[in-house]
């Protein structure tokens, strides 16, 4: 689909937030490629600058305002006109309201409107002015758009959009809409096509993958989807995110029985206090969460568990926080994303008053980080003096002579480039690493055998 207006123009995309945002950026990039545009590495080189935004935490707003404003000082592009666009969750939430703080933005498109990016950009170049499209309902057209992937061996595959959970602190249901599952056949066909072109690893994406299919079939069919995707010949399957209330026994069975499903599970707990979980509208208790962990480990004993935890939710007491610490110690996460609560206007939690001093919340946060680090270090010791298959991604940022990649448990792995090979020859290959060093956030060792 060539566009006479956009053809030959350069573009730059900066993405904030989750994997779903990153995949949306791939779709926007693919659409612009099909219009004859060319991606560049810096905003100063671009005729089109696009910010794909996240609004889960307040810091994302601040970053967007700063980076958009910095575009004002960029030199004019060769064509004389630069179009600034904002997409994603902040765009969906604020719409035209963004122009109050960002008067240099030309195009605003919401999460359900990315299929219309090209026409909005064309209008901005031809007509000038502001062009805004923030539809409430997702037509699903975005999942059929072309994509531009940075890696030819790995891909994100969206299986659903939106969320029905309405956790009291979370803005996502308001900016991503209600759950909408893609058809079973489209997902399997997409993965089959990816296998055909050499993709080895996929991540199935959704705000709550465990409820996949509920809107289509009346009951979740995520376990069935995992088995069908595993039959395509794909070598590695990850998925995110999983809500504990919807993690069914049949899904745990599929994880254990489908060889391509990697032994890693991200299961966000958010708090270890049942009282706080109720205030968060998470719809499970501490005891139910820990019982799930036991069920998963019974079927997949060495699984790597990761999570999200919020510190400082309004009304959290020291006793509540101690419950979170003890849960983290009991589970022993391989990795965790820890956050200080960020008030999001429009969510129920934003109306809850909290007298807890900021320095108390920071002190609790630091205590939690220490527990998480200790658990991650202990978990990684299980792989010391074992051979771990690593999917090579490139080289370490700190040392270009060392390979960097991921294990089946999503651990970062480092190893010297083996003699006789170049990095380019190894990217996308799987190499076995004999691990002689296990640290908190990575494994390190020596490549043994031949790449495959």
From TrEMBL:
It comes from the Bacteria. One of its GO terms (molecular function) is tRNA-2-methylthio-N(6)-dimethylallyladenosine(37) synthase activity. It is found in: Cytoplasm. Residues 149-378 form the Radical SAM core domain. Keywords: 4Fe-4S, Cytoplasm, Iron, Iron-sulfur, Metal-binding, S-adenosyl-L-methionine, Transferase, tRNA processing. Its cofactor is [4Fe-4S] cluster. [4Fe-4S] cluster 1 binds at residues 18, 54, 89. The keyword Protein transport does not apply. It holds the Pfam family UPF0004. Residues 9-126 form the MTTase N-terminal domain. InterPro entries: Elp3/MiaA/NifB-like_rSAM (IPR006638), Methylthiotransferase (IPR005839), Methylthiotransferase_CS (IPR020612), Methylthiotransferase_N (IPR013848), Methylthiotransferase_N_sf (IPR038135), MiaB_methiolase (IPR006463), rSAM (IPR007197), rSAM_horseshoe (IPR023404). Binds 2 [4Fe-4S] clusters. One cluster is coordinated with 3 cysteines and an exchangeable S-adenosyl-L-methionine. Its EC number is 2.8.4.3. It is an enzyme of class 2 (transferase). [4Fe-4S] cluster 2 binds at residues 163, 167, 170. It catalyses: N(6)-dimethylallyladenosine(37) in tRNA + (sulfur carrier)-SH + AH2 + 2 S-adenosyl-L-methionine = 2-methylsulfanyl-N(6)-dimethylallyladenosine(37) in tRNA + (sulfur carrier)-H + 5'-deoxyadenosine + L-methionine + A + S-adenosyl-L-homocysteine + 2 H(+). Residues 381-449 form the TRAM domain. Catalyzes the methylthiolation of N6-(dimethylallyl)adenosine (i(6)A), leading to the formation of 2-methylthio-N6-(dimethylallyl)adenosine (ms(2)i(6)A) at position 37 in tRNAs that read codons beginning with uridine. HAMAP family: tRNA_metthiotr_MiaB (MF_01864). Monomer. Belongs to the methylthiotransferase family. MiaB subfamily. This is tRNA-2-methylthio-N(6)-dimethylallyladenosine synthase. It comes from Collinsella ihumii. The lineage of its organism: Bacteria, Bacillati, Actinomycetota, Coriobacteriia, Coriobacteriales. The gene is miaB.
């Amino acid at each position: 689909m060539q566009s006479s207006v956009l053809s030959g123009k350069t573009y730059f995309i900066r993405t904030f937030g989750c994997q779903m945002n990153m995949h949306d950026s791939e779709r926007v990039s693919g659409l612009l490629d099909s219009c004859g545009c060319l991606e560049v590495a810096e905003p100063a080189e671009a005729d089109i600058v696009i910010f794909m935004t996240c609004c889960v935490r307040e810091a994302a707003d601040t970053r967007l305002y700063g980076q958009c404003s910095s575009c004002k000082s960029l030199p004019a592009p060769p064509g004389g006109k630069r179009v600034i666009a904002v997409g994603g969750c902040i765009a969906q939430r604020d719409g035209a309201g963004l122009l109050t703080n960002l008067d240099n933005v030309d195009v605003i498109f919401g999460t359900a409107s990315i299929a219309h990016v090209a026409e909005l950009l064309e209008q901005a170049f031809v007509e000038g002015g502001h062009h805004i499209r923030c539809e409430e309902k997702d037509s699903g057209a975005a999942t059929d758009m072309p994509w531009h992937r940075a890696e030819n061996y790995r891909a994100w595959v969206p299986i659903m959009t939106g969320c029905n959970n309405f956790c009291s602190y979370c803005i996502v249901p308001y900016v991503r809409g209600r759950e909408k599952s893609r058809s079973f056949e489209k997902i399997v066909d997409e993965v089959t096509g990816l296998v055909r072109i050499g993709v080895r690893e996929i991540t199935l994406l959704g705000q709550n993958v465990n409820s996949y299919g509920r809107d289509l079939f009346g009951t979740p069919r995520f376990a069935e989807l995992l088995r069908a995707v595993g039959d395509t010949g794909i070598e590695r399957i990850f998925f995110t995110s999983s809500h504990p209330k919807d993690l069914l026994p049949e899904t745990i069975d599929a994880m254990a029985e489908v060889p391509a499903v990697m032994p890693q599970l991200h299961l966000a707990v958010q708090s270890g206090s049942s009282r706080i979980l109720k205030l968060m509208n998470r719809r499970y208790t501490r005891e139910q969460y820990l019982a799930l962990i036991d069920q998963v480990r019974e079927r997949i004993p060495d699984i790597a568990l990761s999570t999200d935890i919020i510190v400082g939710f309004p009304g959290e007491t020291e006793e509540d926080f101690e419950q979170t610490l003890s849960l983290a110690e009991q589970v022993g996460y391989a990795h965790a994303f820890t956050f200080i609560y960020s008030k999001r206007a429009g969510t129920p939690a934003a109306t809850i008053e909290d007298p807890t001093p900021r320095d108390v919340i920071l002190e609790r946060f630091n205590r939690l980080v220490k527990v998480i680090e200790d658990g991650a270090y202990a978990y990684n010791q299980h792989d010391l003096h074992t051979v771990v298959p690593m999917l090579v991604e490139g080289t370490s940022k700190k040392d270009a002579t060392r390979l960097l990649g991921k294990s089946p448990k999503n651990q970062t792995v480092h190893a010297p480039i083996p003699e006789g090979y170049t990095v380019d020859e190894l990217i996308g290959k799987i190499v076995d690493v004999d691990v002689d060093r296990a640290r908190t956030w990575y494994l390190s060792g020596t490549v043994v055998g031949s790449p495959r």
